[in-house]
Hints:
Elements: E1 2-3, E2 15-19, E3 24-29, E4 34-36, E5 54-61, E6 69-76, E7 81-87, E8 92-95, E9 98-101, E10 104-109, E11 116-124, E12 127-134, E13 138-150, E14 164-177, E15 183-188, E16 192-194, E17 197-199, E18 204-208, E19 212-218, E20 225-232, E21 241-246, E22 252-257, E23 262-267, E24 275-277, E25 288-293, E26 300-304, E27 308-316, E28 323-333, E29 338-343, E30 348-353, E31 357-362, H1 365-375, H2 379-382, E32 393-395, E33 404-406, H3 425-428, H4 445-451, E34 456-461, E35 467-472, E36 478-483, E37 493-497, E38 503-507, E39 514-519, E40 525-530, E41 535-540, E42 550-555, E43 567-572, E44 579-583, E45 587-592, H5 601-607, E46 609-610, E47 615-616, E48 621-626, E49 636-642, E50 647-652, E51 664-669, E52 680-685, E53 702-709, E54 713-720
Antiparallel strand pairs: 1-54, 2-3, 3-4, 5-6, 6-7, 7-10, 8-9, 11-12, 12-13, 13-14, 15-18, 16-17, 18-19, 19-20, 21-22, 22-23, 23-24, 25-26, 26-27, 27-28, 29-30, 30-31, 31-34, 32-33, 35-36, 36-37, 37-38, 39-40, 40-41, 41-42, 43-44, 44-45, 45-46, 45-47, 48-49, 49-50, 50-51, 52-53, 53-54
Amino acid sequence: MLDGSKILTGAYQAIFWKETSSLLVLFFVFMKNWLQIESPLVKSIPLKGHAEAVCAVDAVYQSDEPDLNLLIASAASDSTVRIWSRHGSEVYFYDITGIFIQFQKTLILPGHEDWIRGVEWAVCGEDLFLASCAQDCLIRIWKVCTKSKQLPETEDDSIRLKENVFTVKVTLESVLAGHENWVYAVHWQPSFSRDGSMQQPMRILSASMDKTVIIWEPDKESGVWLEQVRVGEVGGNTLGFFDCQFSPDGSMIIAHAFHGALHLWKQATVNKKEWTPEVVISGHFNSVEDVKWDPEGEFIISVGSDQTTRLFAPWKRKQETEVTWHEIARPQVHGYDMRCLAMMGRFQFVSGADEKVLRVFRAPKNFIENFSNITGIPVEKLCSHQSSDLPEGATVPALGLSNKAVFEGDMAVQPAEDEETFNTISNQYPEIYFQPMILTEPPPEDHLLQNTLWPEVQKLYGHGYEIFCVACNNSNTVIASACKASKKEHAAIILWSTTSWKKLQSLPFHNLTVTQLAFSPNDKFLLAVSRDRNWSLWRQQDSSESGPVFSCCAYTDKNTAVHSRIIWSCDWTPDSKYFITGSRDKKVIIWGQCDLSVTTEGNMLDSIKPCSTVLDAGDSVTAVGISRVLTPHGRYIVAVGLENGKIILYTWKQSGQEPSLADWSTCVEMDNSQSHALAVKRLCWRHHAGRAGHNDLNSSEWLQLASCGADHCVKIFNVNRFAL
């Protein structure tokens, strides 16, 4: 599964668990309230005092008997840190609901001048430390001393409760100023066990919107806290870091960027102050709208509402047999939400976004070389023509949306280390950010952002509204596209030539947005499905000088339609005889047969009818896909994606002249752990049998299915066709 990091959204802003032998407490931070959940009963304890929204919270037990002493630190947008205490013997009273625990506000720690974004406790021997960070770009470290003493009992005859005095003393240990923008997170290195006791390293990690993560430690001689290591992003249009964490042993740090990316750095074994980027998972941080395999089945490309196009490929680490999938290029970082794409050969694709323009991209030389290094496929097999003619890479000019090709002579010469450079405006803001790199493993995030773009080779103008779907035929000669529409004139399908890049034909028929287009594997037919609940089938006629000409040969209308809601998706069987449609009305239907011997429109219209019974998928159908490889028994393998995130695999084969329910066979229904959490947006089978990166033969038992969904995920499933 390829998954982007997720930011939990909602009313709460922080959450943590504290567990003891007698009480299980879960703290949520709401706008100004705390919620304590006891097991098995629930009671709410509001800790009132903050004047603005609470942003972060942390708690610590002060003794080996955690039921007795608990300190809670809360940070809010009123620029204060408040410490709350609960002393075990102070208030315990019983009622029918169980134990009710009283908290008291102990201290207010002023000092920050803006919203406080994070707090965290650390126990170091007898000392207690609290670190806080804020939007004033500063980190404050507080030293907390606690004292609890029991007052002597009086010897008179009066009845008295045992009294305790509980005090907290806080001193400001240090103020750390090193970040140049809001500091969003601060964390202590985790404690570890040594010689039977827990040791707390005096080391903290901070993440900021200035695109840096800093490790701070006190100087061994003076005790002054100093910056030891600074890592982060370079370039790109990101917003900096949202959170960070140490690994348990402190040898690695991970950071979560504001746009969903994860960054991982590892400490060098020799030079402890040297930290190097490591391979980490990555993915979309918004809904993934479309995914396609390359024709050879070696990688997938996906587009999403996070305005990016991402390329994932299999990678095998040295001396390891397991194949893992990683993002190895980001061909397009756009200014509009992406909607659709279609492959045009192995290293060329066309994409559509929430704009009126289609954009065509071609892989640069640097990508092909690095793809060869990472996957182990020789460059000669990847590139049929002379790679010397290709540009090195691409860059996006300032205030531009188009990826401009960068050739070898365009790149600025990097100055030598000892060469004096002048800090001019042109040096600070170079026109070309791309720098070619030789990669043998998946690249880190900052390299993905600016060094893996593909040059844009063509724009296609013609639609009046935002592009919604696009398809390319299997011979890579014709592109079909459609845009959002509420009228018939805007719902027309446009055909483009991939040789002249000119508009070949406009195909008006539907009244509302065409939701998906699909060419038949033999390129003789084009299928369109629409929001108007109908499908249309277009047949290729004799080609003109400019290119092939299509005419409508079959369709459904108000009288013949079977679907009663939007038809979201369609696909073809590998022999081009049947096609499938899936709709919001929960119906899946296979239509046919598409007979090339039928020449007249009327006969074709009569010959294409439902060949299957209506399959009730149980929920709105948002994606369908048919494998190009059949089962050993010659049955078609059909994948159906639902609005609730589930994916179901069926097989189908026509057994007689009339449709029969027995023709369908339910094979696999993905469980919740494998399904998407939100609607499935697209399903795409690998064109050949076998698994990418495994050197499987075409006769392999394995098939691969790629899916994408509104839950930000791209998933790849291995399917055993012999078991279906």
